Prior knowledge:
Blueprint: E1 2-3, H1 18-22, E2 29-40, E3 44-51, E4 57-62, E5 67-73, E6 75-76, E7 91-100, E8 103-110, E9 114-123, E10 130-138, H2 141-146, E11 173-179, H3 195-213, E12 216-220, H4 230-239, E13 244-249, E14 261-266, H5 273-288, H6 297-300, H7 306-329, E15 334-342, E16 354-358, H8 365-371, H9 374-403
Helix pairs in contact: 3-9, 7-9
Amino acid sequence: MIRFLHVLLAALLLSGTAQAQTQGFGALARLDAEGSTMTQTRAGVEITLALSQGVPYRAFTLADPARLVLDFREVDWGGVHARGLSQTDRVADVRVGGFRPGWSRMVVDLAAPLALSEADLRIDEITGAARLILRLEETDAEDFAARSGLPNTPGWDTPEPEARIPRDPDAPMVIVLDPGHGGIDPGAETEEILEKDLMLSFARQLKEMLLRTGAFEVVLTREDDSFVSLERRVQIAHRSGADVFLSLHADSLGEGNARGATVFTLSEDASDEASAALAERHERADLLAGVDLSGSDDVVADILMDLARMETQPRADLLARALILGIRESGLPLNNRPQRSASFSVLKSPDIPSILLELGFLSSGRDLGNMINPEWRLDMAMAITDGLKAWRLADAAGAGLVRQ
């Protein structure tokens, strides 16, 4: 058993033991849901996860709200209904999904402060199957907060993308496309469609169209079904030397009759209640995916480089109008108020014109039908491309005036 003083388990992480090497930890493991349980004990909660093989992992807790986070190397969650794992009301919810390339995450929402006290990974020497047993014990909120936090696990953080070499002013414009959500964060969903899948597919299609023009270089914030935090998305744009940051979404609104493409720019105060609700939902996605937000204030603070925004924000507003014009001229459906604003953290880069584009709403049958229609998607990609071309010309023409 390993007793925790700071809620950190790094045993077997990154193939650090001889046993890990003999078990072939590079292969994909699966969770046996029927053999896995989350049950109440006299002291708190016991979690047993049955895996087809041992894998590197780490575990830690985060506060506000209280949650247990488990990261695994190469675990396939296919066919797992996470909420069905819990047999105790001390566990409020369970989510699973991809978190980053090669790593999977389970987030266990705790109904009360429960400190991680013991963990034990047991591997069958004959079959290679593994059982991860974790025990959590009741504690108070103060102690839980003191023992929680993102662990400093050696080898976990990936290198930041290298900064780009300054480009020739006549070089292709760099567009960073940000397919919303991903991995453990599915975004909006219907019975058959997940926003994260729809946006990744469209981003790839839009990328190809932009590249064919020869006028753009394109970077995607995610190339697969991996989770990327809001902070990381902005970092990717900066390190890529982005001229434009375009975040792609297709949310769902339970109230009202929202439909049609909508373009969002950054504003401290939302232009309407629906926009405020969307921004709040996007912020909450990081929290639900088990991201520690306690140290992110410097990244997303509203006061960040206000002077730089005095120049950037008018350019973003012009970009929004150009995209709306491109969509309208293509005869594609627009929202009745196509340009809106809210405090989306993903738009808070102070020196890059940033836009969040809702292609439509999954809660609208018409929009959903459009977004899964290949011809409509092609038309929308062309409309966005035309809008970016028009904006580039207008932005270049006004550059001298802006800086005077």
